[in-house]
Amino acid sequence: MALVTVSFSKTDILNRIKGKEALLADSGVKRLLGTTTKRLIRKCFDEERDPYGTPWEPLSYRVGKILTLTGVLRGSFRAVNDGDDLLVGTSVFYAPFHQQGAVYKQKARTQPASKRTGRFTKSRSQSSRSVRVPGGTRRIPRRPFLPDGRGMPPKWRKALRDAVRQFTTQI
Q1: Torsion angle, CA of 102/108/114/117, rounded to 10 degrees?
Q2: How many angstroms from the chain centroid is the CA of residue 18?
Q3: How many CA within 13 A on the CB side of residue 159?
Q4: pLDDT tens digits along 131-156
Q5: What pTM did the predictor assign?
Q6: What is the pLDDT of residues 63-81, one digit of tens each?
Q7: Does 17 score more than 80 pLDDT?
Q8: Which helix H or strand E contains 106, and what residues bound it?
Q9: Which residues of 101-133 are buried (b: 16+ CB within 10 A; e: fewer)?
């Protein structure tokens, strides 16, 4: 599961809000931080950049938005309360391959493809033809959407801090 952990100290926040610990429940600050973090992740997909502002490697085999062909990965992020931590991640199995990049070997194969569009199909029919797909090494480029070992990006830190400040001023 690809994750980003947002840690915060209850005592720091409690000093600011003077004894209103109930606000730290799932419906309070953590839910706000989870929502804000998911918004920041969606922004990475919209801008096609990593959390630090570096553009993702462009597509080489199709046109359109990067990592949003179906939108499954983009919409799969969930926030989970884990004690003093808030875990935001996804259970989509291929998320780590895009987050960290991957290299894999593929065997040569023959696969049916549409005569009209050239796209691969699942079964042979009169409107398809056999296409030989060469084997070799394939590479999935690194297109991170979560912060990595470099720590929390300054824009994310500011957005999370501003969200908590706005929340505490509304009390």
Answers
A1: 50
A2: 35
A3: 18
A4: 888 889 999 999 999 998 888 999 99
A5: 0.74
A6: 889 998 889 999 999 988 8
A7: no
A8: strand 102-106
A9: eeeeeeeeeeebbeeeeeeebeeeeeebeeeee
Tally Cβ neighbours within 10 Å of residue 148.
14
User: Where is average pLDDT lowest: 25-29, 76-80, 87-91, 142-146?
Assistant: 25-29
Residue (of 27, 19, 4) closest to 159 by Cα position: 4
89 has a pLDDT exceeding 60? yes
Reported as a pLDDT band with limits 50, 70 and 90, residue 8 is low
Spatial strand order in the sheet of 78-82 = 2-7, 85-90, 78-82
DSSP states along 137-168: EEEEPP---S--TT-S-HHHHHHHHHHHHHHH
**Orientation angle between helical segments 10-17 and 154-169, nearest 10 degrees:** 40
